[in-house]
């Protein structure tokens, strides 16, 4: 089964995503810390990254940039509670594979993860 890394500082969102993905059979790694997320990515090489833009330790776009620098083919789905057309454009310009606004619609969320993991 594909490996998924979730980087989100909201404990409730992190737990919810972890549970939903685990129920789908994915192997999950998670952290609330941007630099730790980059390290986990390098060590575990997940198939898909779910990344919040608003992280306290490091801006989510910076995490996105560093992961993409390490692996230009990384599939990163940005999830944010502060969504806007502009933030979506910026995330996609930085190399995001997908973009989802909170509150997360889990049908769309799971569809994007399945699609990303299969590519």
Report on the architecture of this protein.
Helix 2 packs parallel to helix 3. The protein has helices at 11-23, 34-44, 60-70, 85-93, 106-118; strands spanning 3-7, 27-31, 48-52, 76-80, 98-101. By secondary structure, the chain is of the alpha/beta class. The protein is built from 5 helices and 5 strands, in the order βαβαβαβαβα. The chain has a domain at 8-25 and 33-83: Response regulator (Rossmann fold). Helix content is 48%, strand content 20%.
Notable characteristics:
119 residues; alpha/beta; Rossmann fold; five-stranded parallel beta sheet; 48% helix
Distance between the termini: 14 Å
Secondary-structure element pattern, one letter each = EHEHEHEHEH
Strand content: 15-25%
Q: Please give the number of β-strands.
A: 5
CATH topology value of the domain at 8-25 and 33-83? Rossmann fold
Question: How many H/I helices?
Answer: 5
Q: Specify the biggest β-sheet.
A: 5 strands, parallel
Would you identify the regions where 5 or more consecutive residues have pLDDT less than 50?
none
Mean pLDDT, all residues: 92
Widest sheet: strand order?
A: 2-1-3-4-5
In short:
The protein is of the alpha/beta class and 119 residues long. The chain has 5 helices and 5 strands; from the N terminus they run E-H-E-H-E-H-E-H-E-H.
Note the topology:
Elements: E1 3-7, H1 11-23, E2 27-31, H2 34-44, E3 48-52, H3 60-70, E4 76-80, H4 85-93, E5 98-101, H5 106-118
Parallel strand pairs: 1-2, 1-3, 3-4, 4-5
Helix pairs in contact: 2-3
